[in-house]
Amino acid sequence: MSHTAHIPSHRKPRRNASKTALRAGVAGGVLSTIAVAAAAGPAQAEPVTQTIEMPTLTSGLSTAVAASAEATQQVALDLETQAHEDAAATTAAKAAKTAKAEAVRKAEAKKKAEAAAKAKAEAALRASRSEARTTLSATSGSVSVASSSSSATGSAASVISFVKAQVGDAYVSGGTGPNSWDCSGLVQAAFRSVGVDLPRVSQAQSTAGTQVSLSNLQPGDILYWGSAGSAYHVGVYVGGGQFVGAQNPSTGVVLRSLDYDPPSGAVRVL
């Protein structure tokens, strides 16, 4: 006997008899099962076959491809349409810009032409007045003599009284009274007061009576500036080398000497 046998921690534990028997039974059962399976042989085992149906992946593929192609085509058409619209808008904008520039150019040209025509008319008016002054200067002595030897009576006196009563009234283009006048409106109203109907405008009034020389004026004669039939201004000779006329917006109706604005001619109605 070992000299350590009496020490419990060094002793081998005894196996339990029931556990040993159980293990032996289990081992025997396993061996028996293996033996039976071996005896049966491979001929007794049947192969297991199972068919798995895979889903058809291409069933919706053609539809999706067609839809994608159609969408792509539609996008292309939309882009092409937008490009045409953009090009049309650009063309229209350029045309509008060109038309506007042309309109501005024509307006400026028209404005310049009107300014040139106005300047030409004013120059012609100044020349006409200058010529009339020269003519009047040559006959001014005779005018004074004729005026001093004449006195207004009857209808002529009434016409002169009428126009003198309007001195100080305003000048308004197209005015026919009672407190504002233009030149021909005043002359027409004055002669209408004595029952004589004259044309409305200066051009016609300058030929409404008998043409008389500026050296033989009588009170009540109609004076005109410009040419007979195309006069641009009229007034009434009141005697004493003076006339009354609706001159312009800045002066209104005035009594002035013939030297202030010498007339071109005269007509006698009364």
The helix/strand order is HHHEEHHEEEEEE
Based on secondary structure, the structural category is alpha+beta
Percent range for helical residues?
40-55%
Give the number of helices. Answer: 5
Q: Which segments are poorly predicted (pLDDT under 50) over 5 or more consecutive residues?
A: 33-38, 132-150
**CATH class bucket of the domain at 122-268:** Alpha Beta
Termini separation: 189 Å
The fourth-level CATH homologous superfamily of the domain at 122-268 is endopeptidase domain like (from Nostoc punctiforme)
- Kindly estimate the percentage of residues that lie in beta strands according to DSSP: 5-15%
The second-level CATH architecture of the domain at 122-268 is Alpha-Beta Complex
Query: Strand order within the widest sheet?
Result: 3-8-4-5-6-7
Rg calc? 65 Å
Instruction: Briefly note the CATH topology name of the domain at 122-268.
Output: endopeptidase fold (from Nostoc punctiforme)
Mean pLDDT: 78
The rough form would be described as rod-shaped
Q: Which SSEs are present, and which pair or pack?
A:
Blueprint: H1 17-40, H2 61-148, H3 154-165, E1 170-171, E2 180-181, H4 183-192, H5 202-205, E3 210-212, E4 222-225, E5 233-239, E6 242-248, E7 252-257, E8 265-268
Helix pairs in contact: 3-4
Report on the structure:
- The chain is α+β, with helices and mostly antiparallel strands.
- It has a domain at 122-268: endopeptidase domain like (from Nostoc punctiforme) (endopeptidase fold (from Nostoc punctiforme)), CATH 3.90.1720.10.
- The chain contains five helices and eight strands; from the N terminus they run αααββααββββββ.
- It has helices spanning 17-40, 61-148, 154-165, 183-192, 202-205, and strands at 170-171, 180-181, 210-212, 222-225, 233-239, 242-248, 252-257, 265-268.
- Strands 3-8-4-5-6-7 form a six-stranded antiparallel sheet, sandwiched between helices. Strands 1-2 form a two-stranded parallel sheet.
- A hairpin with a 7-residue loop joins β4 and β5.
- α3 (154-165) crosses α4 (183-192).
